[in-house]
Amino acid sequence: IQERVVRPLGSPQEDTVDVRVVSATHKDLGAAVASGHFRQDLYYRLNVIEIHVPALRERREDLALLCHDLLGRICRESGLPVPDISGPVLARLQAHPFNGNVRELENMLHRAVALGENTELHLETPPAQEVVVIPDNLQDFLDGQERNILTKVLQETGFNRTAAAAKLGISLRQMRYRIARLNIVTPNGDDASDES
Predict the structure, then answer these.
(1) What are the tens digits of pLDDT across the range 23-81?
(2) What 3-state DSSP class applies to 191?
(3) pLDDT tens for each residue of 50-60
(4) Does domain 56-115 have CATH number 1.10.8?
(5) How big, in percent rounded to 5, are the helix, strand and coil portions of the chain?
(6) 93 vs 111: CA distance, rounded Å
(7) 132-196: what fold?
(8) CA dihedral 77, 78, 84, 87 (to 10 degrees)
(9) For 145-168, what is the mean pLDDT?
(10) What angle do CA 88, 118, 77 make, to 5 degrees?
(11) What is the model's pTM?
């Protein structure tokens, strides 16, 4: 790169080349150089002009333009008409986290075009984001979850504590302790149904 010459494989002489290397990375090469994981000389040879492009989730204002451009290219390549992007579809895209950056957007649009049947873009429903409820009292919340699980497994096993304990991977002693601690009422109220 520095000498601007290459020697083709098997050739005794070098050829002059005039090239500029354009490269992209998602790594912080400055930090990689500092930690010794990337060669410093190569870094400074390549890093003539650095252009930082933020992740798509940090520049949502570009989403409509990117969709238009990507859809145009996708439809040109597949010989299909470019579908319209409705307001609700754009709003759903605006709300999407895009952890996969522009590639994820491109894949979503490819899928929508391939599965689409008319002139308006429809997105398949993405997996629902898990809603995390922050309880007022964590211990009460966890006790409630444990109570629900134990009750369900006890019902599935006909309130056989031994079978329920085995299904949950805990000892019979732990099962008895949890039933008592969580005030779970069983039909027999004793250990009569603990035969395997």
Answers:
(1) 888 888 999 999 999 999 999 988 889 888 888 888 989 999 999 999 999 999 988 88
(2) coil
(3) 888 888 888 98
(4) yes
(5) 50, 5, 50
(6) 14
(7) Arc Repressor Mutant, subunit A (1.10.10)
(8) -80
(9) 93
(10) 100
(11) 0.50
